[in-house]
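Researcher: Checking consistency across runs. Here is Cathepsin L1-like again:
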Amino acid sequence: MARDPALDEAWSDWKRTHNKIYRERNAEDFRRTVWEDNLHTIEEHNREAAQGKHTFQMALNQFSDLTKEEFKEKLNGLRPDLPRQQGGGATVHEKSGTLALPEFVDWRNTGCVTPVKDQGSCGSCWAFAAVGALESLLCIQTRRLITLSEQNLVDCAWPQGNYGCNGGWPSRAFQYVLQNNGMNSERVYPYTGQDGNCRFQSSDRAVRIQGWVDLPQDDERALEEAVAFNVPVTVAVDASSFNLYGSGIFDYPCGTNLNHAVLAVGYGVQNGIPYWIIKNSWGPYWGENGYMRMRRGVNLCGVARVASYPV
């Protein structure tokens, strides 16, 4: 496999930044080749972006040594085979249609969004999206920002139809919190990134909920209302093209095979282009310090297909 020696230093820096260690020489050679291919894709895309052909830039991140197929395989955190949870605490969002929506909403400005987290190699995006909404809801109502436990959901929300590191749904996470009469804080129940036995501590019920609200399918207006007037909202997306996202407003060929759960924490407009503000769970090195701005108004990547928030 031919490698460009001019990239040796950049390769070493990237491995150091993302703590990449390859035990076998063949493995490193292959990863280096994939990384160089991705780097060339990034450079070509960004040249076109500079010419006004794209609204976002690509960048190296922790996924840059994966092929597109490998990256898709890692997106196992959402289970499209699971039907949306009905009843047992769910209500349907009543869309107004007459409410005047603010042009810009960003829940981060209220101090009620926790720092970006990293799910690691566990397919627990569903838990991170649900926890993000719960953390913001608790803060909005109490003015206390408490970091809640994704691991509590990974280990304990199986009876509600979730599968730990093999996927689940945010609404089924809300159902667990409702039926369990609460969940633990991160301090009491820290994240391990792997399936374990349920260790919920009833002495630390960090948040309780009355239920959750499901939004109408594929209705971005309803999603805008919910984000503007209620709380950050969990959304499901087809993230298959997110692997090299760096910054700007993501607007790229994208399917609707939902495979990843994230949190919509706001929306806005830049240069006439409306966008969502998406909080991801891939750590701060991905995207805009762990966030993505995504084109709004075209249901890109199925962003409004399945959305819900706790109450």
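Researcher: Does this match what you'd expect to see?
Model: One thing to look at in this run: The mean pLDDT is 93.
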